[in-house]
Specification:
The chain is of the alpha/beta class and 603 residues long. The chain folds into two domains: 360 residues, no CATH class; 175 residues, Glucose Oxidase, domain 1, CATH 3.50.30.80. It has 24 helices and 16 strands. The strands form four sheets. Strands 9-10-14-13-12-11-15-16 form an eight-stranded mixed sheet. Strand 15 and strand 16 form a beta hairpin. The longest helix is centred in the N-terminal third of the chain and has 16 residues. InterPro entries: 6-phosphgluc_deHydtase (IPR004786), Dihydro-acid_dehy_C (IPR042096), DiOHA_6PGluconate_deHydtase_CS (IPR020558), ILV_EDD_C (IPR056740), ILV_EDD_N (IPR000581), IlvD/EDD_N (IPR037237).
Length: 603
């Protein structure tokens, strides 16, 4: 199948726009490759330090100049259910590396916070910035310059994007991502959402809410809804960072253990010491980035990736814009319905065909680039296969050629929607994005009076007082990266969902973020310029009519700009102390805008 003309046009535009930055990036990579692996440059004392505490078998292997040394960068901690299984991975990796004639060392750990724990709490203000901290921590881990390739252990939210940015900075090193897989299915997601809505209305108590949440999040592995963590795993498949089909295999199973060991063997095989050298800077290019965007749209993934993909691409010298995302979304059919875009969880998605089926469909329709380099070798078609154990041996076989449940995943010829999950909005308020894959068509457009808030708690109090029982556009401002670190505002979702269920026309407009779990609520998010940087959101007042129209891409306040600018803007709230927020002031001061990825590294 020839490439879809829209995908081809956007790819060509990205290549042209990125020519200078990509050329500079590749020149840096080539210089690093030409300088030879770290082992050749390190003095005997340097190298002795690197292996001083290693077992004898590794010390002997380290003396062999042809033996690859694999760095392990891990985001393991016990607070993230998706990361708890990573505790056992380094030992498995080291064992497999020895069997492959290599060594592996734990190069360093990176921070990993759980947005599920910090949601609605002060710590959430550090969440987005943790991505750049993770990228920098990855650089610290690898800056010993003692490695021939690297394995990255991480799954959730800001963690995978941070690891990717760090990996791409070490462009000469092959990079392979090792996931943990999803937890087994618990309480159905629709039931969880129902209990949350009842709690928001005061119809059930905290005991009932805690029981429902505990039945939903009940074991090791990724939370099973299709939020940012599982969107990351989709992305790692479509960009070629994973071994094929490894995203949604359960933790603590023989197949998962076999995939971890195979990751180590593959990392040893693709170094400059062998015949299949795959430096990550060569592997990830404009076509790989476009494939990731197509996957985001085709699966209705998390809005957080509208930030992260831009930042990740930038790390590889690729300049990606919101216009690119919007144009790709309009050309990409929606092939999956996984909660919050449907009732199924990722385990149901995997059973119905999963990523192998989705990638097969995208390639058949010419919506994805097949001619890319992946960690498995040339060609995205390798990712239409799935791993399996046959007589205890890891092998790959063709994935499902047809959907096994068309309520969950469908072919391009029978898509849930002719276009994908995100839509760019723009107007006098600024530019933002809306996730439309879970929003009913009748909620795509609204014009209603504004109700303006600067704190989530004030909105929730107004909701409880009944002041929002009307058609309303909720404006939540001073939530952007420069104001307070751009926390997720998922705590607003249950109350806004209740207003929708009561028959009101409701939308949210904010310079902040929503969770990857956000669903039926129409929300114009990531609005830039943010209020703290002089955006018109700082001038909007209660009662101003606002249009939020995903159909036509409009985001505007129906007050002329001269009148707005004649008003005194709302004051930027003072930064709040505590929870480590004092240490991140330099990040708030130096962060770039949301449509550039909200990064301090590429501001």
């Amino acid at each position: 199948m020839s490439l879809n003309p829209v995908i081809a046009r956007v790819t060509d535009r990205i290549i042209a726009r990125s020519r200078d930055s990509r050329s500079a990036y590749l020149a840096h990579m080539d210089a690093a490759i030409a300088s030879n692996p770290g082992r050749a440059k390190l003095s005997c004392a340097n190298w002795a330090h690197a292996f001083a505490a290693s077992p004898s078998v590794d010390k002997v292997r380290a003396l062999d100049p042809n033996a690859p040394n694999i760095g392990i960068v891990s985001a393991y901690n016990d607070m993230l259910s998706a990361h708890q299984p990573l505790e056992a991975y380094p030992a498995l990796i080291k064992e497999a590396a020895r069997e492959a004639g290599a060594t592996a060392q734990f190069a360093g750990g990176v921070p990993a916070m759980c947005d599920g724990v910090t949601q609605g709490r002060p710590g959430m203000e550090l969440s987005l910035f943790s991505r750049d901290v993770i990228a920098m921590a990855t650089a610290v881990a690898l800056t010993h310059d003692a490695f021939d390739s690297a394995l990255y252990l991480g799954v959730c939210d800001k963690i995978v994007p941070g690891l990717v940015i760090g990996a791409l900075t070490f462009s000469h090193l092959p990079a392979l991502f090792v996931p943990a897989g999803p937890m087994t299915s618990g309480l159905p997601n629709n039931e969880k959402a129902r209990i949350r809505a009842l709690y928001a209305e005061g119809k059930v108590g905290r005991d009932e809410l805690l029981a429902a949440e505990s039945a939903s999040y009940h074991g090791p592995g990724t939370c099973t809804f299709y939020g940012t963590a599982n969107t990351n795993q989709m992305l790692m498949e479509l960009m070629g960072f994973h071994l094929p089909g490894s995203a949604f295999v359960h933790p603590n199973t023989p197949l998962r253990e076999a995939l971890v060991k195979e990751a180590a063997r593959r990392a040893a095989a693709v170094t400059a010491k062998g015949n299949e050298y795959i430096p990550v800077g060569r592997m990830i290019d404009e076509k790989s980035v476009v494939n990731g965007v197509v996957g985001l749209m085709a699966t209705g993934g998390s809005t957080n990736l509208a930030l992260h993909l831009v930042a990740m691409a930038h790390a590889a010298g690729v300049i990606l814009t919101l216009e690119d995302l919007d144009e790709i979304s309009r050309a990409t059919p929606l092939l999956a319905r996984v909660y919050p875009n449907g009732s199924a969880d990722v385990n149901h998605f995997q059973a119905a065909g999963g990523m192998a089926f989705v990638i097969r469909e995208l390639l058949k329709a010419g919506l994805a680039h097949e001619d890319v380099l992946t960690i498995a070798g040339p060609g995205l078609s390798r990712y239409t296969q799935e791993p399996a154990l046959v007589d205890g041996q890891l092998t790959w076989r063709d994935g499902a050629a047809e959907s096994l449940d068309t309520a969950i995943v469908r072919p391009v010829s029978d898509a849930f929607s002719p276009e994908g999950g995100l839509r760019m909005l723009g107007g006098n308020i600024g530019r933002g994005v809306m996730k439309i894959s879970a929003v009913k068509a009748e909620h795509h457009a609204i014009t209603a009076p504004a109700a303006v808030f600067q704190e989530q708690e004030d909105f929730i109090a107004a909701f409880k007082r009944g002041e929002l029982d009307r058609d309303v556009v909720v404006v939540m401002r001073f939530q952007g990266p420069a104001a307070n670190g751009m926390p997720e505002l998922h705590n607003l979702s249950p109350s806004i969902s209740v207003l929708l269920d009561r028959g009101f026309k409701v939308a949210l407009v904010t310079d902040g973020r929503m969770s990857g779990a956000s669903g039926k609520t129409p929300a114009a998010i990531h609005v830039t310029p943010e209020a703290a940087k002089g955006g018109l959101l700082a001038y909007v007042q209660d009662g101003d009519l606002i249009t939020v129209d995903a159909t036509n891409g409009d985001l505007k306040v129906l007050v002329d700009e001269a009148t707005l600018r004649a008003r005194t803007p709302a004051n930027v709230p003072a930064s709040k102390p505590g929870f480590g927020r004092e240490m991140f002031g330099w990040m708030r001061a130096g962060v770039g805008p949301a449509d550039h990825g909200a990064s301090v590294l590429f501001a």
